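Chain A, query sequence.
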Amino acid sequence: MPTAADWVADSNQARRETARAALEQSVQVLTAAGLTVAGEMNEGPASRILSERAAELNADSIFVGARSLGTDAGPTAGAEVVSALITNAPCSVEVVR
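Chain A, predicted structure.
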C-alpha cells in the first residue's frame, strides 16, 4: 500500500513533468517567433530565483504573466510573485495579461 510520502512524491513528479512540457512548448513558440530564448526549471521562491537569474544574466527585463498557472497556492500567489519582482528585481519587470 502506498504511503502519503509516495503519493506526494508521485504528485510532485507529475507537476514537474507538466511544467517541463509547458516550458519546452514556450521555448519552441518563442524561438519560432525569432527570439533567442533558453528555458530552465528551478525549485524555490519564484521571485528570488527570477531576480537572481536576471542579475546573473545582466537581463534588461523580466516578462511574467499576470496570473499563476497550474498552482494550488491560491489566487493571490501570482500577484505576490509579481509584487516581489517589481520591488526587488535588478531590471524592469513587464507583466503580461
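The mean pLDDT is 86. The CA atoms of residues 3 and 32 lie 44 Å apart.
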